[in-house]
Write a structure and sequence with these properties.
The protein is mainly alpha-helical. The protein has one domain: Four Helix Bundle (Hemerythrin (Met), subunit A). It has 6 helices and 2 strands; from the N terminus they run αααααββα. It has a two-stranded antiparallel sheet with strand order 1-2. Helix 4 runs antiparallel to helix 6. The radius of gyration is 23 Å and the shape is globular.
């Protein structure tokens, strides 16, 4: 049985190699592919550029999740030990203001404080304002200050790049939590919606 499996795997590899070789020989490159070189130049400020690339998707998913949750479900929490959906939204706004300011070395505005018990409209407005700030701050960001030492959490110093990494991570984390809360309430999250 072992020898038969090895023979089957070897034959599969050979077939794949032959198919790939045949496709490579018969494929005719398009005129644009022949005209353009196949190598690309290094991206200037790759960390800043990556955050700007990630921002629209994260913003659309997170704000879409907040909009999708009915107002009467903002007090929902999956377990007694977890935060309410309303608390998650206020936390998203606070985190965006804090980390976008730290990552970009742009002073954070002093927004109106929101509480998890505020209305859906007020919490959604705070989340939108935090993403507006991130869009503006990230549009001015370059990688030149990422090696600066900053105070991030508590007295310990970190390179500014840590704030950028935390920012990307929290967008994913916050959307995952919002999507979970939506699904537990029978609502399909934005990224799971069928393409139109």
């Amino acid at each position: 049985m072992k020898h038969g499996l090895v023979a089957l795997l070897s034959a599969s590899v050979c077939v794949c190699a032959c198919v790939a070789s045949g496709q490579a020989q018969t494929a005719t490159p398009s005129s644009s592919a022949m005209a353009a070189p196949q190598t690309s130049a290094p991206v200037k400020d790759p960390v800043s550029a990556a955050l700007r690339i990630m921002l629209p998707r994260s913003q659309n998913n997170i704000l879409g999740a907040i909009q999708a949750m009915p107002a009467d479900k903002f007090s929902f929490k999956p377990t007694p030990d977890q935060m309410t959906f309303g608390h998650l939204v206020s936390h998203i706004a606070d985190t965006n203001f804090f980390l976008c300011a730290k990552a970009t070395d742009v002073p954070a505005p002093k927004p109106e404080e929101v509480k998890d018990t505020d209305s859906k409209d007020k919490l959604l407005a705070a989340a939108k304002a935090s993403f507006d700030f991130c869009n503006d701050a990230l549009s001015k960001m370059d990688d030149s200050k990422l090696g600066d030492s900053i105070q991030l959490f508590g007295p310990k110093q970190f390179p500014r790049a840590m704030a950028a990494l935390y920012l990307a991570n929290t967008w994913a984390d916050h959307y995952a939590e919002a999507a979970q809360d939506l699904r537990l309430n029978g609502i399909l999250p934005p990224s799971a919606q069928p393409k139109k």
